[in-house]
Design goal:
rod-shaped, 4 strands, 16% strand, alpha+beta, 184 residues, four-stranded antiparallel beta sheet
C-alpha cells in the first residue's frame, strides 16, 4: 500500500465510535424517509443498545484492569513486607542497642559515680550497695544514722539530686535507706 505524496490527508481517520455513530444516524435518517409503512427490517433496533454497550465497555474495562493491577500490587507489597520483616526487626533491635550504649557512654563510669557518691555522703554514712540497671536507673543502699542528713547531702550534688527515697529499714542503731533514680 503506497500513498501518493500529493494526496496525503493530515487529519486522522475517524474513531470507531464516530463511525458507528455516523452509521446509526444514517440508518435513522433512512428509516424516517421510509415512513411508517416501511417493513420492519429497514431499521434495526439493536444498534443503539450495542452502541451504548460499546461506549460504556471502555471505562468498565479500564476500571476492571485497574482493580486487577491494584490487587496484584497489594499482593506484591504484602510479600515484600513479609520478606523485609526480619530485617526491620533486626534494625529496630540494633537501634535500641545503639540508644542504650549511647546513653551509657554519656553517663559517668562506675569509678566516677562511686567517687561522686562518696564525696556527697555524710561522714557517718556507708555505701552498702550501688547498682545501675540496663535502662540507666541508679539504685543506692546507704547505711546512715540520720536519713534526713543523707537526703539533704545528696540534693546538693546535681548528679544525685534525682534520687528518691524508696524504703527505710531500721536496724542496730543505723537506718538502711534505699534510694532510686529514674532512668535519664
Amino acid at each position: 500500500m503506497t500513498m501518493d505524496a500529493g494526496h496525503s490527508d493530515p487529519s486522522p481517520p475517524p474513531s470507531l465510535a464516530a463511525r458507528l455513530g455516523g452509521w446509526a444516524r444514517d440508518r435513522r435518517r433512512l428509516r424516517r424517509r421510509a415512513g411508517p409503512d416501511a417493513p420492519e427490517g429497514t431499521g434495526r433496533r439493536w444498534v443503539t443498545p450495542v452502541l451504548a454497550a460499546l461506549i460504556t465497555a471502555g471505562p468498565l474495562a479500564t476500571l476492571a484492569g485497574a482493580t486487577l493491577l491494584a490487587h496484584a500490587e497489594e499482593r506484591e507489597t504484602t510479600r515484600l513486607e513479609a520478606t523485609l520483616a526480619p530485617r526491620r526487626i533486626t534494625e529496630q533491635r540494633r537501634e535500641a542497642a545503639h540508644g542504650v550504649l549511647s546513653a551509657a557512654m554519656l553517663r559517668p563510669g562506675p569509678a566516677a559515680l562511686l567517687d561522686g557518691v562518696a564525696a556527697a555522703l555524710p561522714a557517718d554514712a556507708a555505701l552498702v550497695r550501688a547498682e545501675r540497671s540496663a535502662d540507666g536507673a541508679l539504685a543506692l543502699e546507704v547505711s546512715v544514722s540520720d536519713p534526713d542528713a543523707l537526703r539533704s547531702a545528696l540534693r546538693r550534688v546535681p548528679a544525685l539530686a534525682g534520687l528518691r527515697d524508696v524504703r527505710q529499714q531500721e536496724g542496730e542503731g543505723r537506718t538502711l535507706v534505699l534510694l532510686r533514680q529514674v532512668a535519664p
